[in-house]
Structures are given as structure tokens and as C-alpha cells.
Design goal:
Structural class: alpha+beta
Number of domains: 3
Strand content: 15-25%
Oligomer: single chain
Largest sheet: 10 strands, antiparallel
Number of strands: 14
Distance between the termini: 44 Å
Helix content: 40-55%
């Protein structure tokens, strides 16, 4: 059987799932509305469409992720929207279903797991076992959706066909990119477009072939001409040069209307060519409204100088605050809008060392809206892998901490000079640490890692930094995507955002745990159904 990921899974099965989840959420919200009405409580904004739209509207920006501001008003889904909904749907609806429809949530997660896994570039026996496990969970728990179907036996051809995907993979070793999308494009450009150029008579087929031959010859000639103009480079040398985490160009602060009021006339003359990108530290602190920015900046300069002088500092020294930090007021600071980091895609197991570029944003006036910061979340390696002093912390958190960018800056140290007798520049990112709930353990039901913000330190005149500090660019591993819960007290880490994060799901004893949880939910449903019929 020919498989078609786009039309069988994304355009059909996933669309069915969205409709069923909408109906379940509608039933839940209508029950809550009736209860509030009986209790004489307000019932505004309790309809399922309002709740769903609100959940999609709070989704944070993320590179290459399309957001849905009016989710339920999407009438005609295009290919890009159907592909991007897979990367956010489950994390969004989790807070709406976790208490009242956990079995539906568990079945939906199994289906999305299958959709994600089937898109791997290469499969082995282990990945096939995981997909068989996902199909088992779908079959056991699909009863929860029967009330929303026209067919009591769940006879949907495109829903049934997913059981044949494993046989197809065993025969052809791959499933990704197997769909009729390319055949439709070929039909459009190689037949329909050329047919419009013919005279529509009996020999139109030969005319189409002649047009196609002519176009191929033109493309070939173009490639031959451009070949002599191309400068070839060694791919290995090029990758070694650029595959480092680094900040991108500085922001033009004049376009952000950041004032120059505190900069005296002498400085303006000396920096006439750079005042667009540089401000003194006190102005940066005033415009960004970052709490204790100058104190943290003074620690950043102090530790950068110690590192340049090859003086080692322990974690207590690195976090110790400066008693007098006002000497930093007149240092020049430049602000950057983004960081480029490199990550392993993990979708293609044939090249486990292949890295792809990812842009992490930390920009003021995002999308031309003043006072609107976009601050992305990142994974940061707090300590070095061979750091024995902090070995227990590193091992417990799997070398990663979840943090949010606050600002990316470059500071010019006028008291230190490099080999060219120019002022030394230091580049770092101010990052706020988030706290993992349950020690970064996946929840047994929704398979999501939860994080929350640290509570504010009530100790006055604390001697050490709290949850915000400057980090080197090299410690930033990759970007992360968080979605706030309905209560907005903590966040879900969206593990469907890419394949690298998705692989976090598959911990030790994954298959055994999922089978046990599936059977537990199925038996609970049977008991409730039996109680209802009695």
C-alpha cells in the first residue's frame, strides 16, 4: 500500500483529531458554564471557542513556527499550517484536558507521537517498536472519540491505513517525503503550464514535450555559465569557521528612540560614527528597566577581566555582588537582537553530527511594537562537563538548565587593551534562570516537563546573585519553546517543537510505562461506562 504522510496523516487524521478535541473541550466548558450558572457565578469567556483561541494566542514566538491568532476561524488549511499545528497542538490543549479528559489527551498524544516518528529520515527496529506502541495506545483508547463519529466501528480508511506504515518502512526503509505533493507539483509545472502554451490541437502532447526539452536546455546552459563564476570552498573548513554560538549585528538604537541625554558633548564628538549602536551603561539600564542591571554588569566586567588575566574563580566568587558598582555607569554598551546557535536536528540518524543553524531572538520593539520585548527561552549548560565540584547538579539536570534571555550586549572596557592597543570588548547574555518542577521528570500522564519562575528573594542586601546573571555565548546550547498553562502559574516545555526536543520523551522503560498507563486508563473508562449503564 502506498503511504502518503501529507494527505493520510496531516490533512486527514490530524484534522479529525482537531475536530474531536474541539468537541470534547466544548463538552467540558459547557459543563463548567452550567455549574457556574447554578452557583450564580459569572460565565463570561467560558465557551470552548474563546478558551481555545486564548490558548493559541498566548503561544510565544519561535523561529519557523506559524502562530494561530484566530485558530477556530481558519476555514481552509494550507500545507504549512497543517504541518505546524503538529508542533504545538498537544501542548496547548493539555491544560484544558488534563483534569476532565485525560484519556482523550493520552490518545491524542499517542497519535501525535506516531506522526512525529514517521517523519524520521531513517528507521530501525527500535523506532518501529515505538510506533507499534503508539498504535496500540491509539487502538485501546480511541473509544473516547466514538461519540463524535458517524460510524460506530471507527471505520475511517485514512485512520486505518496507519497500521500499514510499518510494513511499508520494512520494505522501503523510509517513509518521509512519500506523498503525492511532488506529483501534484510536477503535474502543474510540466503539464498544465506547458499545455497553456500549446495550440490545443491533436499533437499537443508533442508540443508539451518540446517545451519541456527547451526549458531543460535553458536551465542547463544557465548552470554552465554560472559554474565559472562560483568560488568553491572546502565544506569542512567553512563549517569549522562558522559553527560557533555568536551574537548577531548590534541594534540601531536611534530607530528605537533611545535618548542621548546623559552623554556629554565630548563623548558625542568622539563617538559620532558609532552613537547609533552605543550607549553608556546608565542609559541602557534606564531604557531596558532590567532590575539591578548595573550591579550585574559590574560582575560581568570583573569576571571577564579575571578570565582574561587567567585568574580562576569558583561559583561563589563569580556570583558575589559588587559593593560599589557605580564605576560602571560610563562604560559603553552595545545591544544585540539575536544569537546564532547550532544544534543537531536528530531527524536524520544517518548524519548524527550534522548541525543546523538556529536564530535565538532577544529584541526590543519586536515586530515594530514599541515596549514589546521578544525574549526567547534557551537551554544553558551551567557548569562544564568535567566540573567535579558541581558534578551532582550537572548529572541531575542532564547538563541543561532552562533559562530566558533578558538582553544580549557587548561592553567596551576602556581600561584593558588587546594586542592592537584597542579597548577590549566582552560579549555575553543576561539570562534569567527558571526552576524545573519535579526535577525535570516527565509527567506520567502528559509527558511534559514543567518549569516555573523562581520566587523573589526577600533577603535585603543579598551578597550573591539570584536567578539572573550573565553567561558566555558558548554555554547557550539551543533554543526552547514554552507555553503557559491555563493558570499561568507555570509553563509547559513544548517537546513537539522539533525532533531534538521530541526525543526527550523516550526515556528508559518508556514502552513499559506507556502500556501500563494505557491499560489503566482503558480499565477506568470501562468501569465508568458500566456504572453509567447501570
Amino acid at each position: 500500500m502506498m503511504i502518503d504522510i501529507l494527505h493520510q496523516l496531516l490533512k486527514s487524521t490530524v484534522m479529525y483529531l482537531i475536530q474531536w478535541l474541539e468537541m470534547i473541550i466544548k463538552n467540558i466548558t459547557s459543563t463548567i458554564s452550567l455549574k457556574r450558572k447554578r452557583d450564580s457565578q459569572t460565565i463570561t469567556d467560558t465557551t470552548h471557542d474563546v478558551q481555545l483561541n486564548q490558548r493559541f494566542q498566548v503561544v510565544l514566538s519561535y523561529s519557523e513556527l506559524r502562530r494561530f491568532h484566530d485558530f477556530l476561524f481558519v476555514k481552509q488549511w494550507i500545507d504549512v499550517e497543517q504541518k505546524t499545528i503538529v508542533h504545538q497542538l498537544i501542548t496547548i490543549v493539555t491544560s484544558l484536558l488534563i483534569k476532565k479528559a485525560s484519556d482523550a489527551l493520552y490518545c491524542a498524544r499517542a497519535l501525535m507521537n506516531f506522526v512525529m516518528m514517521i517523519q524520521y529520515r531513517l528507521h530501525d527496529d527500535e523506532s518501529l517498536r515505538y510506533m507499534n506502541n503508539a498504535i496500540y495506545r491509539i487502538n485501546v483508547l480511541k473509544e473516547v472519540f466514538k461519540q463524535f463519529q458517524h460510524d460506530e466501528n471507527f471505520n475511517y480508511f485514512k485512520f486505518h491505513v496507519i497500521s500499514h506504515y510499518m510494513n511499508f518502512i520494512r520494505r522501503y526503509e523510509d517513509a518521509d517525503d512519500f506523498d503525492i505533493f511532488y506529483m501534484k507539483i510536477t503535474h502543474k509545472f510540466l503539464i498544465k503550464d506547458y499545455y497553456d502554451l500549446t495550440n490545443k490541437r491533436e499533437n499537443f502532447q508533442m508540443q508539451i514535450l518540446h517545451h519541456n526539452t527547451w526549458w531543460v536546455n535553458m536551465l542547463t546552459m544557465k548552470d554552465i555559465i554560472l559554474h565559472d563564476l562560483i568560488t568553491f570552498r572546502s565544506e569542512i573548513d567553512e563549517r569549522m569557521k562558522v559553527m560557533i554560538t555568536k551574537s548577531f549585528r548590534s541594534l540601531d538604537l536611534t530607530q528605537l528612540e533611545w535618548s542621548l541625554s546623559e552623554m556629554n558633548s565630548n563623548r558625542r564628538r568622539n563617538w559620532s560614527s558609532n552613537f547609533r549602536f552605543w550607549r553608556i551603561a546608565s542609559e541602557i539600564a534606564k531604557m531596558t528597566h532590567i532590575e539591578n542591571f548595573l550591579n550585574k554588569l559590574s560582575i560581568f566586567i570583573r569576571e571577564s577581566r579575571r578570565k582574561k588575566s587567567e585568574i580562576k574563580s569558583n561559583k561563589y566568587q563569580m556570583n558575589r555582588k559588587e559593593i560599589d558598582f557605580f564605576w560602571i555607569n560610563d562604560y559603553f554598551v552595545s545591544v544585540h537582537a539575536s544569537i546564532e546557535c547550532w544544534r543537531c536536528e536528530d531527524k536524520d540518524s544517518t548524519d548524527s553530527e550534522k548541525l543546523t543553524s538556529k536564530r535565538i531572538q532577544c529584541a526590543f520593539a519586536w515586530q515594530r511594537q514599541m515596549l514589546n520585548w521578544r525574549r526567547d527561552y534557551v537551554y544553558v549548560q551551567e557548569y562544564a562537563e568535567n566540573d567535579q565540584e558541581n558534578f551532582d547538579i550537572v548529572e541531575a539536570l542532564n547538563d541543561r538548565l532552562m533559562k530566558q534571555l533578558q538582553i544580549i550586549i557587548t561592553v567596551r572596557d576602556s581600561l584593558r587593551q588587546d594586542d592592537n592597543e584597542k579597548s577590549v570588548q566582552y560579549s555575553k547574555a543576561l539570562i534569567e534562570l527558571l526552576k524545573f518542577k519535579n526535577n525535570e521528570v516527565l509527567d506520567a500522564l502528559h509527558d511534559i516537563i514543567e518549569v516555573e519562575q523562581w520566587s523573589k528573594n526577600t533577603v535585603k542586601k543579598s551578597r550573591y546573585l539570584e536567578c539572573r546573571r550573565f553567561y558566555n555565548m558558548s554555554t547557550i546550547l539551543r533554543s526552547a519553546h514554552l507555553i503557559s498553562t491555563e493558570s499561568k502559574k507555570f509553563f509547559y516545555v513544548n517537546n513537539y517543537i522539533d525532533w531534538n526536543t521530541f526525543n526527550i520523551l523516550y526515556e528508559e522503560n518508556f514502552l513499559k510505562k506507556k502500556v501500563q498507563k494505557t491499560n489503566e486508563l482503558a480499565s477506568l473508562n470501562r468501569r465508568e461506562k458500566t456504572k453509567f449503564t447501570r
